[in-house]
Amino acid sequence: MADKILLALSTFPDAETARRISNQLVTERFVACANILPGVESIYRWNERIEIGNETLVFFKLSEDRQAAFQEKLRSLHPYEVPEIVCFKIEKGFSEYLNWVAQSCAS
Fold first, then answer.
1. Phi/psi of residue 69, each to 5°?
2. I want to staple 63 with a disulfide (CB 3.0 to 4.6 A). Which of 22, 81, 103, 105 is the partner?
3. To 10 degrees, what angle do helices 67-77 and 15-27 make?
4. Which helix (H) or strand (E) holds 28?
5. Sign (positive/negative) of CA torsion 28, 34, 40, 44?
């Protein structure tokens, strides 16, 4: 089961936007859960300028078979022109939790 679960990360301009989009993704079963971490300071290059700003980071847990649909849905909801959407395979974890993630994302 562990090789079928992903951790996805995305940043948002504020906690309210992150909360609204995360709620929709959980409600529509694209993800099992979302952990919202406000107050992340980001430093990045955008349009050849160095930008510094506060963002909200979200950890999403989802099944690998929902990855394409999740990315498409998140992209359609996200306010950024080029949103951060990065996914990592979960190598190991508590099997009952991983099974819960898979069941919670089942379409």
1. -65, -40
2. 105
3. 140
4. none
5. negative
Alpha-carbon dihedral angle through residues 60, 61, 66, 70, given to the nearest 10 degrees: 0
Q: How far apart are CA 75 and CA 48, in angstroms?
A: 23
pTM confidence score: 0.94
Number of domains in the chain: 1
Tens of pLDDT, residue by residue over 6-47, are 999 999 999 999 999 999 999 999 999 999 999 999 999 999
Q: Where in the sequence is the domain holding 26, given as residue range(s)?
A: 2-105
The β-bridge partners of 57 are 11, 37
3-state secondary structure of 11: strand
CATH number of the structural domain spanning residue 72: 3.30.70.120
Q: Please tell me the distance from the alpha carbon of residue 36 to that of residue 58, in angstroms, as a whole number.
A: 5
pLDDT in tens, 49-104: 999 999 999 999 999 999 999 999 999 999 999 999 999 999 899 999 999 999 99
